Amino acid sequence: MWNYEKRLQHPVNIKEPNAKLAQIIMSQYGGPDSSNLWYIKILFFLIFSPFLAFLKFGLW
User: Fold this and answer.
1) pLDDT for 20-53, tens place per residue?
2) What confidence score (pLDDT) does residue 32 get?
3) What gap in Å lies between CA 55 and CA 49, rounded to an integer?
4) Quick check: pTM over 0.70?
5) What does DSSP assign to residue 1?
6) Which of 12, 17, 37, 58 is the most buried (most CB within 10 A)?
7) What does the alpha-carbon distance between residue 42 and residue 32 come to, in Å, rounded to a whole number?
8) Are the C-beta atoms of residues 44 and 52 closer than 8 Å to each other?
9) 29: Cβ–Cβ under 8 A, 6 or more apart, which residues?
10) Domain boundaries, given as residue ranges, for the chain
11) Residue 37, Cβ neighbours under 10 Å: how many?
């Protein structure tokens, strides 16, 4: 049915994982449920919602 392959846009090579650095980076974003990421999601939705509606309802 669906074959989902999780890939990144650019190749990432992590030679040594650093949990402390990852924790610092996530704390700068405010954690997993942060308001910063919420604003980015809302901004994305507001920019692309007319285009998504166009695709969903097939108005062409």
Assistant:
1) 988 887 777 766 666 767 777 777 777 777 777 6
2) 62
3) 10
4) no
5) -
6) 37
7) 16
8) no
9) 36, 37
10) 33-60
11) 13
Pairwise CA distance, residues 33 & 30, whole Å:
7
Give me the DSSP letters along 3-60. Answer: ------SS----SS--HHHHHHHHHHHTSTT-HHHHHHHHHHHHHHHHHHHHHHHT--
Type of residue numbered 4: Y
**What is the pLDDT at residue 20?**
93
Residue pair 17/25 in contact (Cβ under 8 Å)? The answer is no
Q: Which tops the pLDDT comparison, 23 or 55? A: 23
- Rounded distance between C-alpha atoms, residue 39 and residue 27, angstroms: 16
Q: Which amino acid is at 33?
A: D
